[in-house]
Write a structure and sequence with these properties.
CATH architecture of the largest domain: Up-down Bundle
Structural class: alpha/beta
Strand content: 5-15%
Radius of gyration: 22 Å
Distance between the termini: 49 Å
Shape: globular
Bound molecules: iron/sulfur cluster, FE4-S3 cluster
CATH topology of the largest domain: Substrate Binding Domain Of Dnak, Chain:A, Domain 2
Length: 519
């Protein structure tokens, strides 16, 4: 088999090793090549800027270009080529520098490639979060500067210790980035509150909006207001319902579908349009490809892209008219509501109740069962884990992996007036989980590692990588991770993480619960 490309950045990578002929995600070798070209160009740009302040527009260029290379974001070679040219022109304007070549990304022994790749993938994940905060007007010089610093480091021959320092440094700065995004989201749209979200389908035309960008959701709600067009959230957009400034729109009807990997089935013959604001777009089927729209860094060849104008405004009118023409669902279908909105503001608001329930022995353990969903077998572990967790335990969840079990909310019941399953929001709301853990540690006068709290994470793409690095940088130990370990972690690097942080691959729900709860 000839090697046309090499990519091992996500959990579904071919054979658990690397996609070499074509991406399991649908990425073509030409797109993979362009993404490597963009990345290498960014390293050269970071070199060229060394010691100088970032060129005008370079801060956003770093974020947007890295975001574009995240799994399932952009499959359109025309977009990737245009981005690569933007990077090259910035390099030329910065005065040039010794070129870092795409092949250099894979230079060195297995461990060096592993360490370099871990840093790169973490940077890609953080870039998506920084992008969402930036569109809401929030930037931080330290976060922005770190893209330049991290990219420059990718081109250096560092020692293992230096690489490890950089990787944990990225974890620390990503906490700042997630805090900035949290401040951007809550500052703009208010403090999320627990909110039941309908999963019913109402009659009439509709737009489905997927991805993480709340600013896009807000613009869509403004432009559908009073038009008789309903809006449904999909995937990671579900927590949008919990924000006061978003849920006030009556046409924000509910949540449609489940996590990203089911879209080809769920969007089949959909009588409405779909707007993708971030990852995760999958190869669309002919039955619905004509109903899709992309925005921001997302792209699929032939799918209409809605770009922002110079003021950041996006004109969704043609897409809304398309939804009206499609007519929407003709019959109402009733579904069970999902509960979301337990971000840190809501949970810390009932902190006394939570602490009281622990002290009274009602709550014995907390689990954070969170992270990405995906198509591969083995992800039923997370459903089983939640179902089998004893009744005196509370489960915090976040990101799209929760669709494996969020419909079980009512069945799981509550403890002392607190639901046993608390949906804390999107993957970036890992910040909320950290805030809650730190507050609990404060209330019990102990360290986070001494709390009766275990993190059981599922990963798929690079945002999960930067979050994991943040948790490690905070010194959080004994994290369970699955469904499989990242292919980009070499045995030696994995060994270091296991030794230093007690990182554990998941086994079975029964065995892991037994170990954690020492039963
Ligand atoms: Fe393969 Fe994942 Fe890379 Fe796609 S993103 S090419 S599935 S490793
Ligand atoms: Fe999900 Fe793609 Fe990662 Fe934000 S939307 S968590 S997989």
């Amino acid at each position: 088999m000839s090697e046309n490309m090499f990519c091992f950045q996500c959990e579904q990578t071919a054979g658990g090793k690397g996609c070499t002929v074509a991406g399991v995600c649908g990425k073509k070798p030409s797109s993979a090549g362009l993404q490597d070209e963009i990345t290498a160009g960014l390293v050269t740009l970071a070199r060229a800027l060394d010691g100088k302040p970032a060129c005008p527009g370079c801060e956003s260029l770093f974020m947007d270009a890295l975001f574009m290379t995240v799994t399932n974001v952009n499959f359109d070679d025309a977009d990737l080529k245009a981005m690569s040219e933007r990077v090259q022109s910035a390099v030329a304007k910065a005065g040039g520098a010794p070129a870092f070549a795409p092949a250099d990304l894979f230079h060195g022994n297995q461990d060096i490639v592993s360490l370099r790749s871990t840093l790169l993938f973490g940077l890609r994940g953080m870039a998506a979060y920084a992008h969402h905060a930036r569109v809401l007007g929030k930037t931080d010089p330290e976060v922005s500067g770190w893209f330049q610093k991290g990219l420059k480091a990718l081109g250096e021959d560092n020692t293992v210790d230096t690489w490890l320092g950089l990787i944990l440094g990225l974890g620390t700065i990503n906490l700042k980035c997630m805090a900035m995004l949290d401040a951007a989201n809550t500052g703009t749209y208010g403090t999320p509150a627990p909110t039941p979200v309908s999963t019913s389908k109402d009659k009439g035309p509709f737009v489905v909006i997927t991805g993480h960008d709340l600013h896009d959701l807000k613009m869509l709600l403004e432009q559908t207001d009073g038009k008789g067009v309903n809006v449904y959230t999909h995937g990671e957009m579900l927590p949008g319902h919990a924000y006061p400034e978003l849920k006030k729109y009556p046409q924000l009807k509910g949540n449609f579908g489940t996590a990203w990997q089911n879209q080809q089935k769920e969007f089949d013959n959909l009588p409405g349009v779909v707007l993708y604001t971030t990852n995760c777009i999958m190869p669309p089927r002919p039955s619905y490809v004509g109903n899709l729209y992309t925005t921001a860094e997302v792209g699929w060849p032939g799918v209409t892209h809605i770009a922002a104008d110079a003021k950041g405004h996006k004109d969704f009118s043609a897409m809304i008219a398309h939804a009206i023409k499609l007519g929407g669902w003709q019959q109402e279908v009733t579904g069970e509501p999902l509960l979301t909105g337990f971000m840190h503001g809501a949970v810390l608001g009932v902190a006394d109740k939570v602490v009281g329930a622990v002290k009274a022995g009602l709550i014995k353990h907390f689990f954070l069962v969170g992270g990405c969903d995906g198509a591969k077998l083995g992800r039923d572990y997370y459903t089983e884990f939640v179902e089998k967790a004893p009744k005196d335990t509370v489960i915090l969840t976040l990101a799209c992996g929760k669709y494996r079990f969020n419909h079980l909310q009512a069945k799981l019941g509550d403890i002392g007036g607190i639901p046993r399953l608390l949906d804390m929001g999107q993957c970036n709301d890992a910040y909320s989980a950290i805030q809650v853990a730190v507050a609990l540690a404060g209330a019990f006068k102990c360290g986070v590692n001494d709390l009766p709290l275990t993190m059981v994470l599922s990963w798929y793409e690079q945002k999960a990588v930067c979050i994991l690095l943040t948790l490690l940088a905070l010194g959080i130990k004994n994290i369970y991770i699955g469904p499989s370990l990242p292919a980009f972690l070499s045995p030696t690097v994995l060994g270091v993480l296991v030794e230093k942080f007690g990182l554990k691959p998941i086994t079975t729900a029964d065995a892991d619960l037994k170990t954690i709860l020492k039963t």
